[in-house]
């Protein structure tokens, strides 16, 4: 492969290069008519010098972009439109689910039986007493359902229902609670519930560390699943709203993450040092330079083609 073919182009953001950039055309010198041999040699040397500079700038910027490449999805929460998490949230908000594992229809049947029994025991009571008894039984029913309502329960009960839903969706067979898929799904649910708390309590460093450990544990489990059962791995991460890069790449849930993904809004968490500012300015200038190369290549192509 010749150097021109190798360095012909590379893909960067649309703001930098909309089309392929060829160093051949960016460095091309326009030779005037009746140019002397010394002039031709000088232009040739200039073209080679420009070409080396363009290739060097492109490669430096390419390496910078590769080092700072963004994840395809949020490495902690995954795809915001993930169907699995939406179903878990619906399960938590479902009014048929009550605290302590009770189902609404089962409790309703029990309350109806108690109410009917009490009313049958007082059939011979006077009309006003009987009416008051009916109202009392109805108040009892409302009180019990209010106490058991998930909205009035603690996070532990909501987490329990969410975990049960995760196990149901990812279990390989009935009774499966320990397969890598189930473990990853349960950890994902716990991560989402934990991040809800983190968003509200940004100073809770203990809880942030707990969520960080859950994310690392999920990475280890999914790496193991990829090694042992690749097909199940890709199906699992797709269903969890994750991508392969957030599993295999190194990741720290640090201030940079919280700032980049706006977990606490537009709050600035990291202040760049002078050295970092100079580095950013350097690559901003390099980005502008490459844009100029691209524009120059187009102009020279139009003139010489």
TrEMBL record:
It comes from the Eukaryota. Keywords: Ribonucleoprotein, Ribosomal protein. This is 37S ribosomal protein S28, mitochondrial. It comes from [Candida] jaroonii. The lineage of its organism: Eukaryota, Fungi, Dikarya, Ascomycota, Saccharomycotina.
């Amino acid at each position: 492969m010749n150097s021109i073919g190798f360095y012909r182009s590379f893909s960067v953001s649309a703001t930098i290069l909309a089309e392929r950039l060829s160093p051949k055309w960016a460095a091309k010198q326009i030779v005037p008519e009746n140019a002397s041999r010394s002039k031709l040699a000088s232009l040739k040397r200039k073209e080679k010098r420009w070409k080396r500079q363009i290739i060097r700038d492109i490669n430096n910027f390419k390496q910078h972009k590769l080092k700072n490449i963004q994840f395809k999805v949020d490495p902690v929460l995954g795809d915001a439109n993930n169907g699995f998490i939406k179903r878990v949230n619906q399960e938590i908000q479902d009014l048929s689910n009550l605290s302590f594992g009770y189902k609404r229809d089962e409790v309703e049947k029990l309350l109806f039986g108690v109410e009917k029994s009490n009313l049958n025991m007082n059939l011979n009571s006077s009309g006003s007493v009987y009416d008051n008894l009916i109202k009392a039984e109805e108040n009892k029913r409302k009180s019990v359902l209010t106490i058991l309502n998930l909205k009035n329960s603690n996070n532990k009960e909501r987490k329990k229902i969410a975990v049960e839903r995760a196990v149901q969706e990812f279990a390989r067979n009935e009774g499966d609670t320990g397969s890598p898929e189930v473990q990853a799904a349960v950890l994902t649910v716990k991560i989402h519930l934990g991040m809800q708390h983190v968003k509200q309590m940004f100073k809770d460093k203990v809880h942030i560390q707990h969520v960080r450990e859950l994310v690392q544990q999920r990475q280890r489990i999914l790496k193991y699943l990829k090694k042992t059962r690749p097909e199940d791995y890709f199906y699992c991460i797709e269903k969890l709203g994750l991508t392969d890069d957030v599993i295999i790449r190194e990741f720290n849930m640090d201030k940079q993450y919280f700032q980049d993904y706006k977990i606490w809004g537009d709050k600035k968490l990291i202040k760049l040092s002078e050295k970092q500012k100079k580095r950013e300015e350097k690559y901003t200038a390099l980005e502008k330079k490459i844009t100029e190369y691209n524009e120059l290549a187009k102009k020279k192509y139009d003139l010489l083609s």
